[in-house]
Fold this protein.
Amino acid sequence: MVAVFDANDRFHAHFRAMITDGAQPLSLYTTWPCVVEASHLLGDVARLQMLKWVGLGGVQVFPFDTADLAEMTLWMQRYTEQPRTRMDFADATLYWLGNETGVTSIMTLDVRDFSRYRLPDGRAFEIL
């Protein structure tokens, strides 16, 4: 979401076009931790634009139960390789979302991590 709303991001035009130029609008899904993370990384104006977009249904935000945290922490441990890389909480919630919904297409700049993640059934994420 950062690249979509930060006009100074070098990938802004690419991701903005993905959500605005299609003949058929994309169905977008995320989680609250990803909204919070993007909100933290964006400047004041872009942050408010993103939050308004979320509020207007630009993306469907999937909640998870506290019981899901146990499984998420296991994935975070599995995919953390110190000191090189780690699965953060936002990534773990997107992994959870892919596992829960079957949607494995993902808009991310985190290619290194999402290209190595495999869902429990062995499926890989398709990075857009």
